[in-house]
Amino acid sequence: MTTSENERDYVQSLERGFAVLLAFDGDMVEPTLAEVAAKTGLSRPAVRRILLTLQRLGYVASDGPRWSLTPRVLSIGQHYTATKAMLELAQPHLLALAEKTGESASLAELDGLEVVYVARVPVRRIMSINVAVGTRVPAYATSMGRVLLAWAGAERVDRYVDEVAFRPLTPSTVTTGAELRDRLDEVRERGWSLVDGELEGGLISVSAPVRDQSGAVVAALASSTSTGRLTTAELEERTVPLLLRTAAAISTELGHRPLRA
């Protein structure tokens, strides 16, 4: 990559925003605008705009001429710590699931209108798209997305249906909000999701919810195969029990304790 390309991709305003946030430390817990400007080397007008933006986003607060960080800044680190911890403890379980099933195992989270792979143990290439950690796929057409949406709450589902642009990725793809809601009802009823050929023809996947200490669904665990290897009935019979046990094991390590009758 050339220097000009590097410069073109560089967002200076973002750098300045972080510089202002990092100006708050043990020596400057509640600095004034002038003190932040002096420490960062930025102009006062620039620091003022950045502070007002951060205040609007909820990361800083002002008390007269002095500024301070709000507890919201902790959410950045907490999200990283929680996700990193989940990935570290989930990895052995994904490896075990892949070994037992002979199929790829994945862990995914919901991000906006898409599902993003956060961990994956590939066994063989079963999709024409390149699936790796960081890959994003439409939530409405995947078993992982349906698991994550099924327990996301009615308001979140309403917003998703209003915002997403349904596309017929294959002849089997769900393409309306009403169809998706019906599928989500089915997922909640049986506790897991199976999607056959909606993201890509010949691809079958099953997913189960992974829950944290509070019981909230924080990720979806999936096992994927092709119709050339297993039928949906065989996948349900052979893989789903293993998938559910693995998801429960990961959830237990995250502190989840299911209520018992």
Would you spell out the secondary-structure blueprint of this structure?
Blueprint: H1 3-8, H2 12-22, H3 33-40, H4 44-57, E1 60-63, E2 66-69, H5 74-101, E3 104-111, E4 114-121, E5 136-138, H6 143-150, H7 154-163, H8 177-190, E6 193-196, E7 203-211, E8 217-226, H9 232-238, H10 240-253
Antiparallel strand pairs: 1-2, 3-4, 3-8, 4-5, 6-7, 7-8
Helix pairs in contact: 3-4, 5-10, 6-8
Walk me through what this model shows.
The protein has helices at about 5-10, 10-20, 35-40, 45-55, 75-100, 145-150, 155-165, 175-190, 230-240, 240-255; strands at about 60-65, 65-70, 105-110, 115-120, 135-140, 195, 205-210, 215-225. The mean pLDDT is about 85. Helices cover about 45% and strands about 20% of the residues. It starts with a helix and ends in an 8-residue tail after the last helix. It has two domains: about 5-70, Winged helix-like DNA-binding domain superfamily/Winged helix DNA-binding domain (Arc Repressor Mutant, subunit A, Orthogonal Bundle), CATH 1.10.10; about 75-255, Beta-Lactamase, CATH 3.30.450. The chain is α+β, with helices and mostly antiparallel strands and about 260 residues long. α3 (about 35-40) crosses α4 and α5 (about 75-100) packs antiparallel against α10 (about 240-255).
- Main CATH class of the largest domain: Alpha Beta
Number of domains: 2
Distance between the termini: 60 Å
Looking across the biggest beta sheet, what order are the strands in? 5-4-3-8-7-6
Within CATH, the superfamily of the largest domain carries the name GAF domain
Largest sheet data: 6 strands, antiparallel
| Overall helicity | 40-55%
